[in-house]
Automatic annotation (TrEMBL):
Pfam family, one: PAC2
InterPro entries given in the database record: Proteasome_assmbl_chaperone_2, Proteasome_assmbl_chp_2_euk, PSMG2_sf
Organism: Nephila pilipes
Protein name: Proteasome assembly chaperone 2
One of the GO biological process terms: proteasome assembly
Lineage: Eukaryota, Metazoa, Ecdysozoa, Arthropoda, Chelicerata
């Protein structure tokens, strides 16, 4: 693996020649309520024709290693944060498998915005979620997903309106100064603000939910994303196959390869 010693010095590429991400759409999760963004990224990685491109080793990311979450019996280690690419669709996906260190989040936001600019990413999509306790049934009824944008064109906003999506906002009865503007949304607020300042196109898709078994919310997020980007055409919700790692959280035995 090769270490690139510039503004993306925290990326360790799998091959000696880094992948050219110019004009790619980059999808990444915000570590937020129910881990919906991370679960949705898992679904994408398990169903798109992706290859592992790099490890991201930033000081804000808690280090960890584990078995491959997609291939049974695979001997390759999985790390806290990895970058995958789907060359045929020009899609790049960053997956997080460990929390961020709160005090180092500002430096991570700086790293991400530098990555978007240096790699000439076409657009970035952040998959996030927010606490449902701030909303009533009427607030979210009939809304597949909510969104916020930074430096996006009118055509993108029009597409969201056609899909029936709604711009995210806390209900008027909630005093935003007492809570985060996106409660439970992780880095979403900070990344949106940074991308707006740097004129970097970004869309944050925000699903309103509660903690628990959030596999259904992950499927909903991916289905909304697919209706917009057509990642896999004619793909019904029941066709998205969950990775083998999803068998483990609710009482299943740990895989023997862990030991």
């Amino acid at each position: 693996m090769t270490l690139i010693t510039n503004s993306v010095e925290f990326i360790f590429w799998e091959q000696s020649c880094p992948v050219n991400l110019e004009d790619y759409t980059l999808i990444l999760p915000s570590i937020s309520v129910g881990n919906v963004g991370q679960l949705a990224a898992d679904l994408l990685l398990n169903n798109l024709n992706v290859e592992k491109a790099a490890h991201i080793n930033h000081p804000s990311i808690i280090p960890m290693v584990g078995v491959d979450p997609f291939k049974s019996g695979c001997q390759e280690l999985t790390t806290s944060c990895q970058l995958y690419v789907c060359k045929e669709s020009k899609i790049a996906i960053i997956q997080h498998r460990a929390p961020l260190i709160t005090a180092k989040i500002p430096s991570y936001i700086t790293f991400l915005t530098s990555l978007f600019k240096d790699q000439k990413i076409k657009q970035t999509i952040l998959l996030a979620s927010s606490f449902s306790e701030f909303f009533t049934v009427d607030d979210i009824k009939g809304i597949p997903i909510h969104y916020l944008t930074a430096s996006c064109d009118a055509d993108t906003i029009d597409a969201f309106s056609t899909l029936g999506w709604k711009k995210f906002a806390l209900p008027s009865k909630v005093i935003s100064s007492e809570f985060s503007m996106i409660p439970g949304g992780g880095i979403a607020k900070y990344l949106i603000e940074s991308c707006e300042k740097e004129a970097i196109p970004l869309v944050a898709l925000i699903l309103i939910c509660s903690e628990g078994n959030n596999y259904p919310e992950a499927f909903q997020t991916v289905e909304c994303l697919n209706k917009w980007l057509l990642l896999k055409e004619n793909m019904s919700p029941d066709k998205w196959q969950p990775p083998i790692s999803w068998r483990l959280p609710y009482g299943s035995a740990a895989p023997r390869t862990l030991y």
